[in-house]
Known about the structure:
The complex is a heterodimer of chains A (about 475) and B (about 450). Chain A is built from 16 helices and eleven strands. Chain A has about 475 residues and is of the alpha+beta class. In chain A, strands 1-2-6-3-5-4 form a six-stranded mixed beta sheet, with helices on both faces. In chain A, a hairpin with a 5-residue loop joins strand 1 (about 45-50) and strand 2. Chain B is α+β, with helices and mostly antiparallel strands and about 450 residues long. Helices cover about 45% and strands about 20% of the residues of chain B. In chain B, helix 14 crosses helix 18. Chains A and B meet through helix 1, helix 3, strand 5, helix 5 and helix 6 of A and helix 1, helix 2, helix 5, helix 7 and helix 8 of B.
Amino acid sequence: MPKLPGGAEPGPKRALAFAVTLATTLSLGLIVALCPRPAAAGGLDVAHFTLGNGLEVVVIPDHRTPVVTHMVWYKVGAADETPGKSGLAHFLEHLMFKGTNKNPLGRFSQTVSTLGGHENAFTTSDYTAYYQRTPRDRLRTLMEFEADRMTGLVLTDEVVRPELQVVLEEQNMRVANNPGARLGEQMESTLYLNHPYGRPVIGWRHEIEKLDRQGALDFYRRFYTPNNAVLVVAGDVTADEVKTLAEATYGQVARVVEVAPRLRPTEPTQEAARTVTLADPRVTQPSLRRIYLAPAARTAAPGESEALDVLAGILGSGENSRLYRTLVVDQDIAVNAGAGYDGTALDYAPFRLSATPKPGITLPQIEAAMDAVLADVIEKGVTAEELERCKNRLIADAVYAQDNQTTLARWFGAALMTGLSVEDVQAWPDSVRAVTAEQVQAAARRYLDKRRSVTGYLIKDTARPEGKHT
Amino acid sequence: MTINAFASRRQRGYAVAAAFLAAALLTAAASPAHATQIERVISAGGIEAWVVHEPSPLIAVEFAFDGGAAQDPTDKIGLANLAASLWDEGAGDIDAKAFHARLESKSIGLSFSAGRDHVRGSLRTLTVNRDEAFDYLRLALTAPRFDPDAVERERSQLVSRLERTSTSPNDIASRTWWQAAFPGHPYGRPVAGTPDSIARIRIDDLKAFTGRVLARGKLTVAIVGDITPAEVGALLDRTFGALPAEPTLTPVADVLMQGLGRRIVVPLEVPQAVVTFGTRGIARSDPDFMAAYIVNHVLGSGTSSSRLYHEVRETRGLAYGIYDSLTWLDHTAFLIGGTATRSAVTGEAIGIIEREMSRLAEAGPTEQEVADAKSYLVGSYALGLDTSAKIAGQLVQIQLDHLGIDYIDRRAGLIEAVTLADTRRVAKRLLDAGLLVTVVGQPQGVTSSE
């Protein structure tokens, strides 16, 4: 999934409540957990159909527990915002909890809570989604509420103004208070020379401050319509019953607008390696990151995105990865090193590297060691043993993830939001299985090109007063 | 954020966090679906496990040994945490590199962590690799290598993380709170230790801790997956049978949370002040626990129906998140919560938290609030039991809390039996004692009380 870094993950509510105290420590784990690649599940009996008003529906039966996960996804994210109004998609996500004429403020959330359910929402560059998990027999109620707010949102300044303050506090928590997140924003905005992915999902603070009720409503009316949405239901349900319920609820919502194709500005040939440095007095541990411009699953050549998945695994996932073994174990110059890639995006998906040097080792030293590892893969490729181990792990991870119905629902939803199909998701394990060592090397050669990259240094600012407490 | 490679590693040592989540799950949710399927298996060698047999391509195992960071010597805090981080860094005649390669090639997930009262472990494997996976677990527990290069690698990763979090407002607020709440008691010390204390830990210390804590007599196990009780019995003996019968544990004193009414402000140059607050809680075994759980749900469960959420976030926009939860350890219990606000309104937010607690202590929750809380707490239990690993984790916690193998069946009845009068009585008892508050940042409207 793109852009979780600066981003605006779950909107209100419970999961995030924990993040208040745990933000910096658990955020990595949380994001990994919430944000798997579109793996899964050839064996799943997934139904996919479209209602008369254009709403697509995906049903993923999972009868192990009497629980249902109900999600509505809209094909709108931060990359669809008008320049100058960054943060609007995410702000609207917050405002979607403010009620309709039929169901005034608080009634939906209170009902979910009384049912013993959980609810949340999240926004990325490419999509916005709302979901609830409840006992299975309450699905119709959820659908009635969610269908109602698809086009029925009512906003007053009285509720909008405090919510803007909430979003500004969210920006403080996720970004302003966190030097690493601030560097991440600067790197992403430097990576994209032309594409709006350079805009933080949560928005630039000076633009968030100017968002208002009318702007949110205008945005809502442009994008929130059944023909721009996908309903995903996972859990103890059948396709037939979901279809009946969906037609009785969502099926009654009229189309608001026709939605234009999502054609965004594309990147020119990138010709210059870039480096950005963020210095903050609170940095005690310098670290290095790099992001390369790489294609998303939708825009990559066949097999290329899967080859990048495998490349990221071999380079930087786990203690047998090239980067960890070389920098941390063999050379003993880093405390951590890793790599990652997730092709679930509409246009581009950064390939990421990171390393934290041991005390006494400089960032240029660690960078040179990292570059040598990359050069070796580009030049000599990967071994058959590495390839096999990595592919086995990726496929097994997909099996493990089927243990969680919400994860499954997120895979399919995110895939459909980013131009992939149900069949693409189901074929993913086979596509990974088919990746060859030659494809991995070719992907490395093509995309690990420094001219397509931004390197970020996070360093201590020694010019300013010591930020550390005494 | 950036890189997914070492997420599980970085979470190690945040056993506090794990304990919170476990507590929240435990009390947050009710699936009769699984209740009837829990079997108690006692192996020929006398090792007990709770088992849920379900057709699934994977097996999830969760376990805990009594004896966690509270056992750390005063000059070597962080010992339990460092030891746990090393159990999967090579075992038997397999060095760390080969051990990880074997786990990875079979997609076996094996991890250990230390909390204040326990060390915990978790194993997940595809069913087809079951026996091999349990073999690696056995080796890790009975023959960890503690090779010098692996020890130094883990040590430097830990120190690196401690350095990084030493300027994180969230970590400072939490650490300061624990120190002030439990001065002079092992619970007041950071589970992960300090750079200085970790530097003092020797390989002999790690071996000694492992030998004294990993014992089959204080082991709690739960297994969920495609495995029969007969198979479980044999696996338990093979995996844990070679461990010593009983651990050698230093007694830990019961303790009451201290610092009620105290304010501690730690200056840090950040735009948003981070607040941790708490007061004395209620033991898990207390007959009023469920009433307290309902009261706390009304106060600050973090859901949109809670009073703190409504007053601090929704009405005034002072914070993005605000929550609190009841927490219990083997020797104490408390209520702890957190929020984060821009500097200008930090004092106001703390005032609202105190006012809402007093209001709830005075008048108690309303009848509607109690009914809604009960409905939520009963209905949401199933949501915490929807994956194999979550079910196994829950079954370990139920055992550690001595709630009985029928607890999942009884839980809804226990909640329903709480009366409005119970909640009013317990609200008074729970919320009237004043708060220990730590704030990190540049807050206005609050100063340290000394």
